[in-house]
Amino acid sequence: MIMPYGRKATHAEPGRGVPEIDFNALWDRAFAPTIVALGYEPVRADQDTGALIINQMIERLYFADLVLADMTIPNGNVFYQVGIRHAAKERGCVLLAADWSKAFLDVVQMRTVRYPMPEGSIMEATAEAISAAIRDPIRNLARGVSPVHVAIKGYPSKVDEAAASTMKDVMTAIAALQGEIRAVRAFPRASRMTQAKELVGKYWQPPVTPPTALALLLLMTDSAETAEDWQWIGDFIGKLPEDIAEQEEVRELNAFVLSNTGKPLEAIARIEALIQALGPTPDRLGLLGGRYKRLYAKAATPTERLMYLNKSIDCYERGMELDLNEYYCSSNLPRLYKVRKRKGDQERAQSASRIVIAACERAVRRGVADEWVRPTLLGTAFDNGDCDKAEELAGEVASEGAARWKLDSILLDLETSVSLIEDKDRKERLAAILEDLKQISAG
To answer: How far apart (Å, rounded) are the C-alpha atoms in residues 116 and 132?
Structure first.
């Protein structure tokens, strides 16, 4: 049995799963008894001991008659061990997950046995329901073929060399495309979209593979500058084959493109459908919150403004709660709370700011390659009215350049933050720093 151990948070949305699971109780009360009932001897992967634990783990994954893996939460060890089993043995690996959990990454395409889990402590009734739900499906799927063995004919000892040669040609072509994409990204921003369109013309030759289409789409969304650029990308997505257009990343990008072509309501509908089908992520909820924030900014009446403001805050709050290390959602909350001015919003703004600072500083310590760390820290300094920090960071902007700090993207938010500062001296000092930043941005 491959599974997490101890109590683990699920990061499930409220009302769509349990907040925490006692995986030891899940093993003791549900999985182990079911394995015995199926005629196997239950061995849990985390119970290995000894200096050669990695060797013992690999040996057990290879020699076991059956491997079960619980995929309810995204756990790195579980995914790694499933990969080993899929590569090592043709049959005998069955994936399990709670019925409310959302499949993660490539596993979404794999057959998974679902079981009920209304509470995470695994009481007797829950354990019985889990056992009843998984017993027969495990028996039926135990002889299922590994996706590795399905994809690579003759694996591991009789692989067709012609197929290997063909795949090498495909990988050579992908490497060439990726090299040209890197070259386009090195162009100045003003001319990058023109180069991206030329690359699309070169590589958009049927049949286009999903990796090629997605690589080109990501390049274009990273290069777009004008409304015409975004419309061009929207037309490109409209021509994609259905199997590519329905991929998760393409659907997310399509919603982003729709918003930038002046269709925020359609974008919102697409994102909500994606969340309903595949579950929430901080990126999806951040994207949704951003669309509502745009509607708030353009609303014609106070009632509409408050409605969209509340919706935006709700999305950002949900995204923040899913993962406190993903600071995009939390970084938008302080100034939105201050605009709303509901009872307790000032305290909420301070709490969100602390979360943003901690997440950004952690990202810097870990050396995370995230281009938004610096601008987020600058925005948070303005949100907090921290003049000394804002002045310090403005000095770094002057030495490192406006592009690295994405000044063009955040100046409007910085203006909003300054307008919300109540202390006169702080407001005047931040306004002066903001003017300096505008001059840096202008050139």
So the answer is: 10
